[in-house]
Amino acid sequence: MDKWQIRSAREQVAMYLRENLVAGRWQELMPGCDSIATELGVGKDTVDAAFALLESEGLLIPQGKRKRRKIASFPRKNARYGLRVGLILNARVDAQIRYIVELTMRLENDGHRIVQASKTMMELGMDLKKIGGMAKKMDVHAWIILAGSRDVLEWFASRTQPVFAIFGRRQELAIAGVGPEKISALKEAVKTVANLGHKRIVLLTRKRRRLPSLGDFEQAFLWALKENGIEPTDYHIPDWEESIDGFHVRLNALFGITPPTALFLDEAPLFVAAQHFLSQRGLSIPEDVSLFCNDHDACFSWCEPQISHIRWDSEHIIRQVLLWAQNIRRGVEDRKQVLTKSEFVRGGTIAQVKR
Questions:
Q1: Listed residue (306, 285, 284) closest to 296, CA to CA
Q2: Which tens digit of pLDDT belongs to each residue from 19-64?
Q3: 193 and 294 assigned to the same domain
Q4: pLDDT, averaged across the chain
Q5: Which 8-state DSSP code applies to residue 29?
Q6: pLDDT of residue 5
Q7: In the listed set 312, 330, 347, which residue is the last one of a domain according to the structure?
Q8: Is the separation of the CB atoms in 308 and 279 below 8 Å?
Q9: Residue 44's domain spans which residues?
């Protein structure tokens, strides 16, 4: 049995870098210290020490202060890595979404390397300057942006690296993207709820969907209200500060004077938060308030009765990203945007309005 060894942080980072160098991940020049530190979540001093160790082994060649190290010529294995793909999430919870985990795994199985940004767009306050500053420090060939706002996606579209937008306000931008076509399902949901006698129907949607102007989905929601005899106002799509506190401030205001009888929530986390808020106030679903989620989540399949929501197949999303990455690796420009099918699922969280 080999003797068990405890490696220092420097040795662990050096081992990781050494394996990637031999596999052919990087060519000619080594990424900078900041980039590696961000990718691995370690201090720059640790990375510097690991670089020094690789220099002593002859794998890296220093080129002077503030200059990237040269990668020495040595026999390599067949290159395992294709693209270095930067992944920027909207919120920290996105990293646990099943299809994001599966997408990351399948991209890496295809030979690509995923470099997840150290902070999410929410953690940076959706500040374009901060998001852009973080992106500039990341040494990647291409980008995947999850649920980006319009200004964020416009910034990435202006860069030289290829960009793929999963969801977000990507329409009419010269970047690749994918997302479910949810407007038909939304109209069916609004019609169903209106036919159950609901008039005070409120859509709580994220800031990027409301500003600088309403997105297509939100405009379709207002049109669906109008088609079902409900005159839309600001009440139906209220503004709120996009934070946990801001969400609860808005819910408290809504249920203070003229409470909605039906709530449409953007995503599963907002749905669960609203469900918890209502239970704390002694309100029952759907007897007192009908709840509907505009998105799909794998956990909904475990609920009985079923959650009312818009369902779509995440496999189509994953396949489209994999095809894009394959094209970019081959040097083929790919800016195709695709809409996948979705459907309205009428579950047990909507019911006749309480008289």
A1: 306
A2: 788 767 777 889 888 889 888 888 999 999 999 988 888 889 998 8
A3: yes
A4: 90
A5: B
A6: 53
A7: 312
A8: no
A9: 9-71
End-to-end CA gap in the chain: 75
The pLDDT of residue 35: 86
Q: What is the pTM of this model?
A: 0.72
Contact 344, 307 (CB under 8 A): no
* 143 three-state secondary structure: strand
Distance set, CA 60 to CA 51, 54, 72, 78, 312 (Å): 7, 6, 6, 19, 48
CATH number of the domain where residue 145 is located? 3.40.50.2300
- Give the C-alpha separation, 114 to 86, whole Å: 6
Structure tokens, 232: 């839309």
Q: How confident is the model at residue 3 (pLDDT cuts 50, 70, 90)?
A: very low
Across 5-17, average pLDDT: 81
Question: Could you tell me which of 88, 82, 10, 79 has the C-alpha nearest to residue 43?
Answer: 10
Question: 244 in helix, strand or coil?
Answer: helix
204 and 164, same structural domain?
no
Mean per-residue pLDDT, 90-114: 89
Residue 27 lies in a domain: yes
